[in-house]
Amino acid sequence: MTTLKHWITPTIVRHGGAGLNKFGGVRQSLYLDAIDGVPVSQLIERFGSPLFVMSEARLRETARRMRRAFTSRYPKVRFGWSYKTNYLNAVCGLLHQEGFEAEVVSGFEYEKARMLGVPGHRIIFNGPLKTREDLERAVSERAQIHIDHLDELYLLEAVVRDAGLRDFPVAIRLNFDTGYSEPWSRFGFNLETGQAMDAARRIANSPWLQLVGLHNHIGTYITDPRAYSAQVRIMAGFVTAVEAATGCTIRFLDTGGGFASRNSLQGVYLPPEQVVPSIEQYADALCNTLHECFRDREAQGKPLPELILESGRAVVDESAWLLSSVVANKRLADGRRGLVVDAGVNVLFTAFWYNHDVRLTKPAEGLPEETVIYGPMCMNIDVLRQSLKLPPLSPGEVLAFWPVGAYNNTQWMQFIAYRPAVVMVRENGSVDVLRRREKLQDMTDLESLPDGLQPDFRD
Ligand SMILES: *Cc1c(COP(=O)(O)O)cnc(C)c1O
């Protein structure tokens, strides 16, 4: 009997020292066998695979660095935690401990913040959909509402009037072109066309509302700090214009989020160490421009506006890893190697846009080869990585994807498989579950099976 052997593409690998490449960066294929001192093998054994692992130490460190960067450069800063980036209770709880308020974009997120004990006046309420009930609650709890469009403005006026209140302090969201990134004109009032000024005048003429703040969120993963200088300059110009035109006093400027994390956006050739500015560089751009624009205001004895930040990904992304185990190896028709792992885009949603750093979790044996990493879904789009050099890996070996703390634990979807657990390595070295792995009942609890629709296999 003959046994057929698999054909393996021959590969030629150039021997090179770990020298500089032409962009000056050294790409090392290090492996990651422990997270904050806890062995990866132990984490998988205890909590299963795939698994999200967060680091308490890293999250606190990043949050503190963010606060320090801004409070040391500007006298009045408030920090909002962007719930949609990661609203696990433990993440929000930790960031609230670190002095972040809640920045929410829906009634659901608002309720979650209140459930966690955030008082209404420490909630920044953004987003294009706020129902009458949402606004009634937000008004009665004195939340900071940022109006997105005229219909919301009218509804809010009615809610304030019906609550028997007057001069309820509000902000409007602005959109404009900074010249550095694609403007997001679908949110808020456009500045260049005069919509924003119209909204401000409307508010000035309303007995129910009072304009006290301006909000803008340029976009996300903004890698040029000059975009924030431009943003502040444009907003400061509008402060002068709107105060002169309506007699209002702007007390705060909320510049939104968008600072990049050390992740590689697909299509960007340089590594994140070279493209992503430090938090301090963003802080320089924002705070220097604020000082420059409001110097005269200070000289006139008017208070400096408060700066509000709503950074999401830059705060949380780097504090989480996704561990995923190899299921199978495949040889694709074009000769490339395919690797199937047990986490797909259903769990790692950000794989659609980012090339995460993928690490082995033990030393490599064998020659690296061009590999496609597939998830376990029955969908052709379930690709975690189109192309990466990896040594041969056997089923059961674990890969670590990083950074994955932003937008995955909120945008993941329940499709085909159970969503995995999220655990946190605490500063004291213990490991706590932040969200357990899903089970069948979690899904079926939401369903009902009406009479006459039960299956019937009596044959
Ligand atoms: C999503 C969002 C943020 C956070 O954005 P990042 O890019 O993650 O920093 C902040 N503010 C608003 C209004 C948002 O919608």
Automatic annotation (TrEMBL):
Tell me the GO molecular function terms.
diaminopimelate decarboxylase activity
Q: Which UniProt keywords apply?
A: Pyridoxal phosphate
Q: Which Gene3D superfamilies match?
A: Alanine racemase, Lyase, Ornithine Decarboxylase, Chain A, domain 1
| Name of this chain's protein | Diaminopimelate decarboxylase
**So which cofactors does this thing need?**
pyridoxal 5'-phosphate
Entry superkingdom: Bacteria
Organism expressing this protein natively: Fluviicoccus keumensis
What does the record list as GO biological process? lysine biosynthetic process via diaminopimelate
Q: Where are the transmembrane segments?
A: none
Start and end residues of each Orn/DAP/Arg decarboxylase 2 N-terminal domain? 65-316
The record's annotation in InterPro entries points to: Ala_racemase/Decarboxylase_C, De-COase2_N, PLP-binding_barrel
Tell me if Nucleus is a UniProt keyword of this record: no
